Amino acid sequence: MKLFESITYYFGVYKHFIGKRLYIVFALTAAAAITEAFGITLILPLIEAADAGDGGLERGGRAVQFLYATLELIGIQDSVVGILIFIGAIFIGKGFLKFVEGGYASYLRAQLMKEIKGKMFNAYRFMDYRYYADNNTGHFINVINGQINNFIRTFDTFTRFLTMIIITASYLSIAFLLAWKFALMAIAVGFVLLFLFRYLNKYVQDLSRKTSKEESLLNKFLVQTIQSFKYLSSTNQMQYLKGGVMSSIKRLAFYMFRQGAASAFTKAIREPVSVIFLLFVIIAQVVVFDSPIAPIFVALLLFHRGMQHMIGIQDDWQKTMEKIGSLEMVVNEFEVLEKHREESGERPIGKLREGIELHNVSFRYENKDEDVLKSINIRIPINNMIAVVGESGAGKSTLIDTLTLLLKPQGGKIYIDGIDSSEIEVGSWRSQIGYVSQETVVFDDTVANNICLWKGDYENDPDVKERVEEAAKRAYADEFIREMSDGYQTVVGDRGVRLSGGQRQRLFIARELYKNPNLLILDEATSSLDTESERYIQKSIDALKGSITVVIIAHRLSTIKNSDLIYVLEKGEIIESGTYDELSLNSESKFSQMVAIQSL
Ligand SMILES: Nc1ncnc2c1ncn2[C@@H]1O[C@H](COP(=O)(O)OP(=O)(O)OP(=O)(O)O)[C@@H](O)[C@H]1O
């Protein structure tokens, strides 16, 4: 991208998030810069009023005429003290404008952060399950925290970059009005410098892109290491992940150093370049034009300020480029998420009345060559208990994901109460579902909040308290909860690390029972329980029979004895269906073989 295109592109990105308010910052900056340049120019009449010469500049010039006219209007054109007070007032005014500008820029920065993080969080909330499954947690955390924070930093440096252009332009245009020959020289030198810096900018920009990618990778390694801490420590395998983490950190450090060195270079040459230019101007004035320096004193002061700011332009652009990889990554993430936004119909669905029907449903994962579900036909009538069994990898969980509408089948239809699922507003359906999945979900909060999921106040609402405890009793969790230090108010810790596997699962079941769902999905819900807990929970589940619709996936076939109908899934196909007795009594059936193996 050409420089100008890049500037307008990045400007467009910020404007997209904070709107026209962005212009206010620049208006305030220009006002502050012009005020300061005006203050410096006042030295001209000051010199004159103090009888130290005539400032060397033609009084006929329009700018100078305007200056004197202003002083005459106030009545201080000949008063040294008057002019000094006026200069003081101008600089106080400039200070005030700078404060307002800085304050407003901070306000916009905070707004930008709120806007982008909020939007990204929402975009993540509504991303489709496939995109979630294809990425790792580290990536999401990195984007929403690290990369967005860098994005905000680029906003600072980018606004400062444009601000510097405005200030430089203000100084140089006033200098131009006072002594145009030198102003032209300064502008020419500035452009040559900016041209030379092009390569440095490109270098820093490439480093920034690499850094953003590396940060994502590092985050992935870190999150995986922390998540699998227990396993990795107890099997002494931390070292294998450590290698990846350390080399990623090393690469990041190297990028950081190179960016820092480039930045130090720009900063270091700012002063010498400006001074060398001034020396040239002085030499030109004294040697070539054979004139004294005093007359161009004010113009020199303005040039010096202007030149410093001009190199500041480069410095801030470079700093923007240092983090531009993050801006690009965030913008790209928004674009990708827009494409991976979960599709949903518009039609809200009421309480399940008739049941669910899968009609010739087939599904294939993008990276697979074979269908995982092949022309599935299943009926789940209301208040029935339906079981799905099959070997590992048969497609049971995939089937469940189509029921919750997380996965959209490529072939066939799913009807809920006779309504085509593609028309249904997914939220209205999912809020009726209770789902005990294979991965137990426990939040770092109290037991009570883990059960009611913050949908009530356990401590102050007796109704909530009663319902929470009732759900826990039905999940056979009440007893162990009461034995904990603070009972229902005990904080269970991140991912439930302070609970045993069986306790975590019972807590999970309690939450789903509390929800009072219309469809309860149990995917290996009792697999990590001891026989006694399992039997007890089985009783609770059996007690639900006839009052809510239940879909059970279980490897242990004894747990599905009471189901109304059992479907046997093999390699994505329903090969048998019937009641437990029908299937187990048929010696030809796959199901009876499975039962036989389990009773060995
Ligand atoms: N996100 C995914 N991307 C690609 N393939 C997948 C994905 N999830 C599952 N599969 C594949 O789909 C097939 C069915 O998987 P599924 O999890 O539905 O089986 P399952 O019957 O529930 O197995 P288990 O009893 O072991 O949980 C498997 O071959 C699996 O490798």
UniProtKB/TrEMBL annotation:
UniProt-listed PROSITE patterns: ABC_TM1F, ABC_TRANSPORTER_1, ABC_TRANSPORTER_2
Membrane topology field: Multi-pass membrane protein
ABC transporter domain boundaries: 356-596
InterPro entries: AAA+_ATPase (IPR003593), ABC1_TM_dom (IPR011527), ABC1_TM_sf (IPR036640), ABC_transporter-like_ATP-bd (IPR003439), ABC_transporter-like_CS (IPR017871), P-loop_NTPase (IPR027417), Type_1_exporter (IPR039421)
Pfam families in the cross-refs: ABC_membrane, ABC_tran
Every ABC transmembrane type-1 domain range: 24-322
PANTHER family: ATP-BINDING CASSETTE SUB-FAMILY B, ATP-BINDING CASSETTE SUB-FAMILY B MEMBER 6
Protein name from the UniProt record: ABC transporter ATP-binding protein/permease
Organism name: Rhodohalobacter sulfatireducens
